[in-house]
Design a protein that fits this description.
heterodimer; A: alpha/beta; Rossmann fold; 5-stranded mixed sheet; 15 helices; B: alpha/beta; 8-stranded mixed sheet; two-stranded antiparallel sheet; 11 helices; globular; binds thiamine diphosphate; binds iron/sulfur cluster; binds magnesium ion
């Protein structure tokens, strides 16, 4: 068993970054995730593993530092919260276009605009439908506990490098701020410069000894070539959709109704299905762990198994519900429930929503 | 007089100049007479002469030189408009022994990327910034740049740059020279053989500072022409540059070895 600690989600994520052998973290303070850079600067990871930590002058700078660092084959990471992630979108699009493996973290807060600093899930569209310009996808992992804030850091890097694609950990102000017991994984070694040069031949870290030179760009002025590049990206996205869907099913086997919820909403909904079952209503929970790729197939299977209705529970005005509806494809009822602006719904509210919108409605 | 056959003259012993192999054979996409190509070549000559071809990473953002990676035969990364110093920071921090430079236009470095420029300079990133100041947005068709001279006509200042409306041309090079994080700041030109020789010495010095880990950033401005954007012939553009740009953007060193030059 690994080392046990009581930690905030943001701190567990920061500690996991050091232990995952990350080479560089670049970030700019914003509530509710500033603990990430504060923890990192206090921990002196430079002395522990050689990891570089730098406070950038803005999120625009952080994401572009990440673009430079990631293009060299090193493991680079940033974290921010909603407004900061909005500011990064141009850079994210470049990184996706140039196929650079980096890891981003969004500890989501209430919006739009400056919004507030309370937990929210209203950046689902931004995360899974683009955010920046062009046809691209981010591999999106949604932790629902402090443990997963830690565990998803190495997983995000593994997926990012496997597919040469940016990955994002989508958390929220509650998961980031709350304290829970976490079992930390063992320190992983950082790759040496020689190992990186030998393994990632695409990376721009100085021409290879045999004279091969590398170019990292997202530009192609020839539309036919750019179309080809886009088709290659789409092929990769398809492959990710086929292989990397992650989800958790709770009490779905005998369920008649399914709540689909991720992150904090999944924690709340887990309590809600317990309350529903106490009332004799057979409810189950499907928790998407990857928001993209989305567990579309698993929802389809649930529909085919005779589920009577789905309630998508999300701290937003109804974003993920669109993907649930696409999966259900009109076969049974799908509704959304969620509080907005940083208000967190209670399990009782979820119970009531399922009863009124799905069973009663 | 006997006929001279050109083929008889092309012999190794007659060779006085050769293109560096760090410039690719691709035809430059720049307008004839444009300074970009010369500036590219000087950087590549310096890298070759310093034996750093396997250790250098160049970053060129959007601007006429967005395709610099097609011409500079080393590892290169293309950056978003204005962000090259941030990319270079990310690279250099994780590969402190590599040579990292950016190659930026005036719109890029002194307008959209002012923040990244100032902060990379202020942190004293151990990189080289080559700054091509042609007083205009060349790539997008000749709009006003932060460096456009007062009264100068561009496609967005069709009646000439009006200070009341658009402010004064920004001498960002003098500005960054004030920051303790810059170690070497100089302004050069590449429009005559004499200027080219001086500019090459300056570029060499900038890269040597980096290789020798001198404390701070080396910043080389090249005042250059944009005959297309200025709507002049190449020769007229060079004359106009001497008569109008140089009196405002004075050539020469501004800061050497971390010390401002007294004028
Ligand atoms: C975010 C963004 N805004 C605007 C542009 C369009 N754009 C491309 S290059 C450029 C100006 C380039 O001027 P400069 O940096 O002076 O370089 P030059 O072409 O003169 O060498 C602009 C406005 C862009 N590519 N990206
Ligand atoms: S538009 Fe101006 S800067 Fe661009 S290549 Fe032509 S002359 Fe050079
Ligand atoms: Mg310009």
């Amino acid at each position: 068993m690994g080392e046990l600690r009581l930690m905030k989600g943001n701190e567990a994520l920061a500690e996991a970054a050091i232990r995952a052998g990350v080479d560089g973290y670049f970030g700019y303070p914003i509530t509710p995730q500033s603990e990430v850079i504060e923890y990192l600067t206090a921990e002196k990871p430079y002395e522990r593993t050689g990891m570089v930590v730098l406070q950038a002058e803005s999120e625009v700078a952080s994401i572009n530092m990440l673009y430079g660092a990631g293009a060299t084959g090193k493991k680079a990471m940033t974290s921010s919260s909603s407004p900061g992630i909005s500011l990064m979108q141009e850079g994210i699009s470049y990184i996706a276009g140039a196929e650079i493996p980096v890891v981003l973290v969004n500890v989501v807060r209430g919006g739009p605009g400056l919004g507030d600093i309370q937990p929210s899930q209203s950046d689902y569209f931004q995360t899974t439908k683009g955010g920046g310009h062009g046809d691209y996808r981010l591999i999106a992992l949604a932790p629902s506990s402090v443990q997963e804030m830690s565990d998803f850091v190495p997983l995000a890097f593994e997926l990012a490098f496997k597919y040469r694609n940016p990955a994002i950990i989508v958390s929220d102000g509650a998961i980031g701020q709350m304290m829970e017991k976490v079992e930390l994984f063992e320190q992983m070694p950082r790759m040496t410069d020689e190992e990186i040069r030998a393994k990632y031949k695409w990376a721009t870290n100085g021409k290879l000894e045999d004279g091969t030179r590398r170019i990292i760009t997202s530009l192609d002025l020839d539309p036919y070539k750019l179309e080809e590049h886009n088709l290659k990206l789409q092929k990769k996205y398809k492959e990710i959709e086929e292989n990397e869907v992650r989800y958790e099913k709770i009490m779905c086997d005998d369920a008649e109704y399914i709540i689909v919820a991720y992150g904090l909403s999944a924690r709340i909904s887990q309590k809600a299905i317990q309350l529903l079952r106490e009332k004799g209503i057979k409810a189950g929970l499907l928790r998407p762990i990857t928001l993209w790729p989305f567990p579309t197939k698993q929802i389809k299977e649930l529909v085919d198994s005779g589920i009577k209705g789905f309630l998508s529970v999300e701290m937003s005005a109804g974003q993920m519900v669109e993907d649930v509806k696409l999966a259900v494809n009109g076969k049974v009822k799908v509704e959304h429930f969620g509080r907005l602006g940083g208000v967190v719904h209670s399990p009782e509210e979820v119970v009531e929503a399922l009863e009124q919108k799905i069973i009663g409605g | 007089m006997a006929e001279i056959n050109i083929q008889d003259i092309i012999k190794p012993e007659n060779l006085v100049y050769k293109k560096t192999r760090l410039m690719t054979d691709k035809t430059l996409s720049y307008c004839p007479g444009c300074g970009h190509g010369t500036a590219h070549r000087l950087i590549m000559e310096v890298i070759e002469e310093m034996g750093k071809e396997h250790d250098t990473i160049g970053v060129a953002p959007v601007g006429c030189s967005v395709l610099a990676y097609e011409f500079m035969n080393i590892d290169m990364q293309e950056a978003a408009h204005g962000r090259a110093p941030a990319l270079a920071t990310g690279i250099k921090r994780l590969w402190p022994d590599k040579v990292v430079f950016t190659y930026q236009g005036d719109g890029d470095l002194a307008a959209i990327g002012t923040g990244e420029t100032i902060h990379a300079c202020n942190r004293g990133e151990n990189i080289v910034i080559v700054f091509i100041n042609n007083g205009i947005y060349g790539m997008t068709g000749g709009q006003m740049a932060p460096t456009t001279l007062v009264g100068m006509k561009t496609s967005t200042t069709p009646y000439g740059r009006d200070v009341a409306q658009m402010g004064n041309p920004l001498k960002i090079t003098e500005l960054v020279a004030q920051l303790p994080g810059t170690y070497y700041v100089t302004r050069q030109a590449v429009h005559t053989p004499a200027a080219v020789r001086k500019a090459k010495r300056a570029i060499r010095k900038a890269f040597e500072n980096q290789v020798n880990k001198k404390p701070g950033l080396s910043f080389v401005e090249v005042v250059s022409n944009c005959n297309s954007g200025w709507k002049m012939t190449p020769v007229d553009a060079n004359n106009w540059m001497e008569e109008n740009m140089f009196p405002f953007y004075n050539l020469g060193d501004i800061k050497v070895d971390g010390k401002l030059i007294e004028k």
